């Protein structure tokens, strides 16, 4: 990772603070742009007369480019200037979001989503590794805060679409959000090259890929993220279906919002606890709390009690991804970018795969059994954390 050293302690502190602001602002805006797409799907049906089977292409169009380029960004880390990569990612994401507002057809909308995903892959493949090197002394805390900012953006995104529809045109949402990237781009241009501790990311070689891939901490991260994001994907996709007839009618749509809102305090609390607890203890505690919340929600609770359980699930589930990623990054901090890319690829597979599997369960046995089956990956997550505790140790106390 290309970087410059600053001999002034005050200047170093200021640089780190401003680059942290850049990263947090970008991930919040990127999260908003991602969650906006689901909110405009019904409008696209009306605007372009798009059949439902074509609307199903919205998610893949935004994901394919992201997966390819977040992986490529991890591979080139250490060989390409970080400042140029993050500027490309932020500016490209903002421009592509703005372009979506000019959509004249559904095909154009899909192409613009692919472009947004492509630049998003570059930005998300660069920003967290940079944050890792800016705050190498307490990665767990800052990774949790980073994901909390994403959750803030993801919560605001649909509200922007709602406001735009109230004003008369869904396109206003994309114009507004695209323009919001401009101050962040200008800040990147204005700021000096980020000053980081150590030597940043080393160039990735085949031998290093094999060595890092065999690290037990990385294997724990892969297993843990696959299970937690699988649960997330299932809830994002099927929760409102489960809520129908089980919670008051006025809360059916809001049930998913209850889950997502819980992510914000959940990730901030996980960040604070990462400074007080060792990593594996935190992973284990969150996993156990999430398991108990899931059992209560889908086996015991009724009515409004389901919403209380959903808040508990979101609160405890939200801290897993950043904590698991920090745990594996501590094992090979000189390769934080490829580890970050790997985590994003695995999370995408979990979010996409588990809901599809549950779709078959729902068609055969119903939504209640499908939601109850979520205890399986959560029990496995507790098991993985216990094995990590016994075989690897408790991890670095963040």
From TrEMBL:
Alphabetically ordered keywords of this record: Membrane, Transmembrane, Transmembrane helix, Transport
Where does it sit, as one GO cellular component term? membrane
Domain named Major facilitator superfamily (MFS) profile is located at: 19-395
List the InterPro entries hit by this protein, alphabetically.
MFS, MFS_dom, MFS_trans_sf, MFS_Transporter
Membrane-spanning residues where?
18-34, 54-78, 85-102, 145-166, 172-191, 218-239, 251-273, 280-299, 305-327, 339-363, 369-390
Highest rank taxon of the organism:
Archaea
PROSITE patterns listed in its UniProt record: MFS
Predominant location = membrane
* Family, as annotated: Belongs to the major facilitator superfamily.
- What is the designated name of this protein? MFS transporter
The opening ranks of the lineage are:
Archaea, Methanobacteriati, Methanobacteriota, Stenosarchaea group, Halobacteria
């Amino acid at each position: 990772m290309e970087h410059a050293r600053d001999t002034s302690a005050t200047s170093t502190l200021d640089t780190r603070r401003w680059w942290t602001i850049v990263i947090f602002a970008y991930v919040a805006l990127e999260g908003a742009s991602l969650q906006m797409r689901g909110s405009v799907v019904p409008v696209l049906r009306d605007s372009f007369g798009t059949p439902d089977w074509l609307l199903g292409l919205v998610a893949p169009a935004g994901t394919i480019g992201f997966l390819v380029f977040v992986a490529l960004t991890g591979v080139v880390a250490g060989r390409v200037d970080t400042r140029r990569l993050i500027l490309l990612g932020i500016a490209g994401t903002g421009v592509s979001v703005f372009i979506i507002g000019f959509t004249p057809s559904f095909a154009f909308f899909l192409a613009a989503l692919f472009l947004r995903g492509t630049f998003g892959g570059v930005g998300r493949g660069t920003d967290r590794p940079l944050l890792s090197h800016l705050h190498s002394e307490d990665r767990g805390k800052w990774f949790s805060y980073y994901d909390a900012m994403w959750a803030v953006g993801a919560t605001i995104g649909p509200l922007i679409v709602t406001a735009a529809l109230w004003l008369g045109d869904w396109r206003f949402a994309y114009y507004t959000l695209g323009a919001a990237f401009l101050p962040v781009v200008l800040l990147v241009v204005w700021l000096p090259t980020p000053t980081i501790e150590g030597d940043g990311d080393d160039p990735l070689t085949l031998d290093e890929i094999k060595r890092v891939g065999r690290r037990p901490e990385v294997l724990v991260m892969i297993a843990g993220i696959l299970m937690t994001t699988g649960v997330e994907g299932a809830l994002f996709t099927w929760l409102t279906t489960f809520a129908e007839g089980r919670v008051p009618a006025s809360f059916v749509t809001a049930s998913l919002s209850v889950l997502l809102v819980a992510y914000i305090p959940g990730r901030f609390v996980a960040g604070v606890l990462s400074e007080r607890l060792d990593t594996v203890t935190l992973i284990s505690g969150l996993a156990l709390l999430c398991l108990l919340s899931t059992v209560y929600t889908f086996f015991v609770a009724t009515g409004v009690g389901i919403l209380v359980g959903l808040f508990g699930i979101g609160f405890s589930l939200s801290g897993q991804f950043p904590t698991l990623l920090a745990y594996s990054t501590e094992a090979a901090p000189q390769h934080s970018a490829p580890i970050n890319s790997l985590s994003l690829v695995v999370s995408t597979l979990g979010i996409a795969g588990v809901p599809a599997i549950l779709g078959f369960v729902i068609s055969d046995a119903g939504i209640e059994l499908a939601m109850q089956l979520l205890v399986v990956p959560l029990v496995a997550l507790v098991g993985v954390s216990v094995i990590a505790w016994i075989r690897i140790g408790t991890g670095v106390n963040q």
